[in-house]
């Protein structure tokens, strides 16, 4: 495909915007704390809103608290949208989420400065509370619960009060829902948050989709007894059973085609004493893959393995579902455009899944979705040491710019 434009974003300005936003909520260790709906988050959103206006975008806040900047197109066709989030974990970095928002604004600035009007409207979206409830993205996709009691924020604040404080309207949350008639494509630029691109020495990740996720609690019941007087062949040791569960989960996660991941991330033992054979164990299991059938098969095999472990250890094992999120595949044609743009710009690229959740996951529920990854140094994210070079940020933003331009022609 021939190159459609010779435009480039202003890389110096983009990276200055990243640094400027990072001043809001900055911690003494260099990390960023801008929890969703906090005063720091509200301050950051106001700065981003001002930048949107300066870039020629009209702005509004929908009923879920999503901040939306919009540049009208030549037609009333559905919009091409981009964006991410600016809220952080308690000690996050300055790239997670922020790059996608600020690169979107930089695309708008570039269109404004070059007097380019797309056929489609162009939107930049700052999603509300990505790091906790994902209420913004879910409301836009129409998958959010309308009952405030269903949300349990880590800071304990009621979700309805939070959304209202951010300029939303909880009582009219359903009005935030969008459809394909509103948005024909959504493309999110994001730092990888892992080390795959860096290890492969690739500059751009073409995201194939966002993995589905299932979480379970495993309850193992044995029989507590004296650690000194109970012979080994008379024990019903819940921790021994749990150890076998951990190994089975690890083995299932590694089996071909080896794209899935499976993790035991939390373990609690009772009575948790030096001289008592453990009587109860509770552990968590997290399974992720792009293919729902792979997840289902893995869980089916796990349940059979749990049955055998219980039988061999004299314990009882119960598996309790906790979370079920379906995969969200990226649109094939958007993947192709991102790959072609990368080649056009002389950037190495590779296809890869996103094993972390993003706002694009929810957007993919109702419209064509794609994601662009750029490398994370050392694979670190959600940390003060999170780092993506200025050049890599520029590369990602330029890929986003040209992807938007090409999609504007694709959907004619």
Name the features.
Bact_exopeptidase_dim_dom, disordered N terminus, Zn-dependent hydrolase, 16 strands, 412 residues, Amidase_Cbmase, five-stranded antiparallel sheet, nine-stranded mixed sheet, Peptidase_M20_dimer, hydrolase
Give me the count of strands: 16
The secondary structure category is alpha+beta
Strand and helix order: HHEEEHEHHEHEEEHEEEEHEEHEHEH
> Beta fraction of the residues?
15-25%
Please estimate the helix content. Answer: 25-40%
Unreliable spans are 1-5
Mean pLDDT over all positions = 96
Largest beta-sheet characterization: 9 strands, mixed
User: Helix count, per DSSP?
Assistant: 11
Based on CA inertia axes, which overall geometry fits? Answer: elongated
Could you give the distance between the termini?
17 Å
Question: Could you tell me the radius of gyration in angstroms?
Answer: 24 Å
Keywords: Hydrolase
GO molecular function: hydrolase activity
Organism: Leptolyngbya subtilissima DQ-A4
Protein name: Zn-dependent hydrolase
């Amino acid at each position: 495909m021939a190159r459609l434009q010779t435009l480039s974003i202003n890389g110096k300005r983009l990276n200055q915007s990243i640094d400027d936003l990072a001043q809001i909520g900055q911690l003494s260790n260099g990390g960023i704390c801008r929890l969703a709906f906090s005063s720091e988050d509200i301050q950051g959103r106001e700065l981003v809103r001002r930048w949107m206006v300066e870039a020629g975008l009209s702005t509004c806040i929908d009923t879920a608290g999503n901040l939306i900047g919009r540049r009208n197109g030549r037609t009333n066709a559905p919009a091409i949208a981009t964006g991410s989030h600016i809220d952080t974990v308690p000690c996050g970095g300055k790239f997670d989420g922020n790059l996608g928002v600020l690169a979107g604004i930089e695309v708008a600035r570039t269109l404004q400065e070059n007097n380019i009007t797309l056929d489609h409207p162009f939107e930049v979206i700052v999603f509300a509370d990505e790091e906790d409830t994902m209420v913004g993205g879910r409301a836009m996709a129409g998958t959010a619960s309308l009952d405030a009691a269903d949300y349990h924020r880590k800071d304990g604040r009621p979700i309805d009060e939070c959304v209202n404080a951010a300029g939303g309207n909880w009582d009219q949350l359903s009005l935030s829902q969008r459809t394909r008639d509103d948005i024909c494509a959504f493309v999110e630029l994001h730092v990888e948050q892992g080390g795959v691109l860096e290890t492969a020495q690739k500059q751009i990740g073409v995201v194939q989709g966002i993995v589905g996720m299932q979480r379970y609690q495993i309850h193992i019941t044995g029989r507590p007894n004296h650690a000194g007087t109970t012979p080994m062949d008379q024990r019903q040791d819940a921790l021994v059973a749990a150890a076998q569960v951990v190994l089975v989960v690890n083995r299932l996660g590694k089996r071909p085609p080896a794209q899935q991941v499976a993790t035991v991330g939390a373990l609690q033992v009772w009575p948790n004493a030096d001289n008592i054979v453990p009587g109860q164990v509770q552990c968590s299991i997290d399974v992720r893959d792009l293919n729902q059938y792979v997840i289902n098969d893995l869980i089916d095999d796990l349940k059979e393995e749990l049955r055998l472990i219980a039988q061999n250890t004299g314990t009882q094992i119960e598996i309790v579902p906790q979370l079920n999120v379906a995969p969200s595949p990226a649109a094939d044609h958007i993947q192709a455009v991102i790959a072609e743009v990368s080649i056009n710009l002389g950037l190495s690229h590779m296809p890869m899944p996103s094993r972390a959740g993003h706002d694009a996951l929810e957007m993919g529920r109702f419209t064509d979705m794609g994601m662009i990854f750029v490398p994370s140094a050392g694979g670190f994210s959600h940390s003060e040491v999170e780092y993506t070079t200025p050049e890599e940020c520029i590369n990602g933003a330029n890929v986003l710019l040209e992807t938007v331009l090409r999609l504007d022609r694709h959907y004619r």
